[in-house]
Amino acid sequence: MMQFALKMGLLVCFSIMVLTLYHEAFIYNGGITSSSFVIKQSKPIDMPLSSDVFSHPPGYNAPQQVHITQGDHVGRAVIVSWVTQDEPGSSSVVYWTDTNPQKHKATGKLTTYKYYNYTSGFIHHCIIKNLKFNTKYHYEVGIEMGHTTRRFWFMTPPAVGPDVPYTFGIMGDLGQTYDSNVTLTRYEMNPVKGQAVLFVGDLSYADHYTFHDNSRWDSWGRFVERCTAYQPWIWTAGNHELDYKPSIGETKPFKPFIHRYQVPFWASGSTEPLWYSIKRASAYVIVLSSWLISSYIHSMYTPQYQWLHEEFPKVNRGETPWLIVLMHSPWYSSNHDHFMEGESMRVIFEPWFVKYKVDLVFAGHVHAYERSERISNVAHNIVNGECSPVSDQFAPVYITIGDGGNIEGLANKMREPQPKYSAYREASFGHATLEIKNRTHAYYSWHRNADGYAARADSVMFFNRYWYPKDDSTTKSKRRW
Ligand SMILES: [Fe+2]
């Protein structure tokens, strides 16, 4: 009888332990912080150029690689870009609203560039301005007698305001592999409908090819056109945009990227397309460059530093409550890949991020997914020994989402033990969505490629740091880290 009771007692204890672990793991959404999800993953390979996703649009001089991005500071302008291959053709865009067939015309500019033995097609950029908010526009490019025209459409964002709901998709390090195609398809098929994409850098991975074969920039443009022609992607430059290769005489960093992907940097007083800001609905998005033109080392008084110094005080949280920063190289990542590469930038800028209560920081570069708790490491100076990040409710959540599926494969070597600040980490391909509900709440989810379209592998309701700075951490530990 005693033995039976003992056995039953042990069984009950064991069951409680299991239930407790279950509770920790699932109720606290990351209380056990490392996902146990393991996917057998072979290294991604690029889709061959003969793939249907890279097909050239039919017809003479048909515009290809069509993409749009925001063209001013508030969302009433759009930059339309495309490439023609046979001859320059027209740089004009004809556009009209869904409800009024009266057509408007804007004329843009044409550029080309050479990269080693590659000569680009004719790259067109046209800004269409004074658009109405929250309106569906149709547009047509390739308008020239005897040429092929193509039509697309987009929605302008709602007017900027503090409680305007808006949904962003977030992707990074996409490349052009079969996995990249799955990631993009998952984003398109997600029942959470992103209205614009925050892209955190590393687009085509053309530099993977001999002499950085720039025809892979072209194929990438054709691959993503099915999305980029219809909704704006907000571009961040990554290291695979550098295309810096002195051995073949290519010494102008970011040459293909800057020629192909224009951004409205002038609208926020920036002097370079690598750092700028936009307002969109209830969000203020600041884009930063992890790489300066010639250096990875950040210091005070660089042009980006000067710009950001003046930029943060301009953010009016009464108008745009959600302050989001995009950069390529993460500041907080517990992955072995690129470990601490963002340090020189973090040391310089992190005090401002805490002071100005940045809500979220999205980065790529590391080919895995990770979400931090709200942490800062600003107390540290060289002598005080306070060199570990601490829980800080005025600090951002840092999200690494470089898991778009590019040819370099997953970064699956995590540092052990998992730091307390790391709320969730996993080496799987995927994308994220951020559903801003109002000035206080935004529902964030990471969607793993291996799951169903509607699945949310990691979800958090974020509370706005300015309007509702309640603790939104998902792990229980609040102790000093
Ligand atoms: Fe990168």
UniProtKB/TrEMBL annotation:
This chain's protein is named Purple acid phosphatase
Pfam families found in the cross-reference section: Metallophos, Metallophos_C, Pur_ac_phosph_N
Q: Reaction catalysed by this chain? A: a phosphate monoester + H2O = an alcohol + phosphate
- Family to which this protein belongs: Belongs to the metallophosphoesterase superfamily. Purple acid phosphatase family.
Q: What class of enzyme is it?
A: hydrolase
Q: Which SUPFAM superfamilies match?
A: Metallo-dependent phosphatases (SSF56300), Purple acid phosphatase, N-terminal domain (SSF49363)
Against CDD domains, the record matches this protein to:
MPP_PAPs
Domain annotation Purple acid phosphatase N-terminal: ranges: 63-156
Q: What is its EC number?
A: 3.1.3.2
Q: What is the annotated signal peptide range for this record?
A: 1-20
For activity, the cofactor(s) needed are: Mn(2+); Zn(2+); Fe cation; Cu(2+)
Keyword RNA-binding listed: no
Q: Please list the GO terms describing molecular function.
A: acid phosphatase activity; metal ion binding
UniProt superkingdom: Eukaryota
Q: Where does the Purple acid phosphatase C-terminal domain start and stop, copy by copy?
A: 395-452
The record, for PANTHER family, names:
ACID PHOSPHATASE RELATED, PURPLE ACID PHOSPHATASE
Species of origin: Mikania micrantha (bitter vine)
